[in-house]
Amino acid sequence: MSFDAxxxxxxxxxxxxxxxVSLRKKTSFGCNAFSRAIFTxxxxxxxxTFVQTMHQAGFLYTKDFHVxxxxxxxLIEDGGYTGCxxxxxxxxxxxxxxxxxxxxxxxxxxxxxxxxxxQLRKESYTGFEFTFGIPGSIGGGIRMNAGxxxxxxxxxLISVYGCTKEGEPFTKDVxxxxxxxxxxxxxxxxxxxxxxxVFALSEKxxxxxxxxxxxxxxxxxxxxxxxxxxxxxxxxxxxxxALIEEVGLKGHQLGEAQISEKHANFxxxxxxxxxxxxxxxIELVQQKVYNHKGITLExxxxxxxxx
Length: 307
Ligand SMILES: Cc1cc2nc3c(=O)[nH]c(=O)nc-3n(C[C@H](O)[C@H](O)[C@H](O)COP(=O)(O)OP(=O)(O)OC[C@H]3O[C@@H](n4cnc5c(N)ncnc54)[C@H](O)[C@@H]3O)c2cc1C
Hints:
By secondary structure, this protein is of the alpha+beta class. The protein folds into 3 domains: 3-87, Uridine Diphospho-n-acetylenolpyruvylglucosamine Reductase, domain 2 (2-Layer Sandwich); 94-218, Uridine Diphospho-n-acetylenolpyruvylglucosamine Reductase, domain 3; 240-304, UDP-N-acetylenolpyruvoylglucosamine reductase, C-terminal domain (Uridine Diphospho-n-acetylenolpyruvylglucosamine Reductase, domain 1), CATH 3.90.78. The protein is built from 7 helices and 17 strands. Strands 6, 7, 8, 11, 12 and 13 form a 6-stranded antiparallel beta sheet that branches. The chain is globular, with a radius of gyration of 20 Å. The structure holds flavin-adenine dinucleotide. The site of flavin-adenine dinucleotide (FAD) has 32 residues, from strand 3, helix 4, strand 9 and strand 13.
């Protein structure tokens, strides 16, 4: 049975499903593509049931169904995603487990990083200021081990929970050793539904200074245009942006996609940029940097869909 016919035949999911959804507003780059379907669960159980049902019918995680966070590190190919994206934005609870010198909390995957930061800032708990200006969700932040030189998700996480690609629930205690630069290998084939975090009570002034530092760095980024954050991981001890500038590609444009003139490790969208052009820019940069510097640049962004 086809994927569409299968899903349409399941009345229990009808109210959670939308069909042929534009991803322009669901990706920070404004990808001009569609997803065949989007499933928006309200509870963790909805996710387990959906994933189990898809798995038992032989549909595969990432090929036929995939997770969408806030789409700030995700490019959808111009041909769109022909499966079903799971949009976790309605799993947005923050629950206190203990709140003394440390605030230990359970945060669901759909909570925005900015929402959590504002709550911590208001109540003077430190540890999450590094996320200032990162437009992602908690689930996406865990999956990507989002961070800056000032801090990483792995430093404030105690455990994560979610389900496997077969729909089996799991909870896993984590340490920093479970994470890599921009990656949480255990989470690669999982659906992350939230995590337990710990933050420390602090002085308001200390927190505000950290946020001011983060803000000053954001001012160097081309935030007035749609983008998907840093294109390449920084190949220590170098900075990808500086390497791109050195090989003369800063400002290079293909169609409506352009390597930013403000910060060369960003590709910006002037309107209806094609992801095909973004991929060509990425390849061009990788080739030139390799040829001139002998350095291989790895991308940070995730790409899904049909070219
Ligand atoms: C202006 C700007 C600035 C940025 N600055 C930074 C920065 O300083 N540091 C940094 O690390 N990143 C940065 N990013 C990139 C991005 O915001 C982070 O990677 C963020 O963690 C992505 O979260 P998301 O919810 O948007 O995930 P998405 O982009 O929706 O998804 C990214 C990947 O994670 C997967 N995923 C998402 N949620 C889940 C889940 N719940 N379970 C399993 N898999 C999931 C998706 O399938 C996809 O493969 C920036 C982006 C922008 C646009």
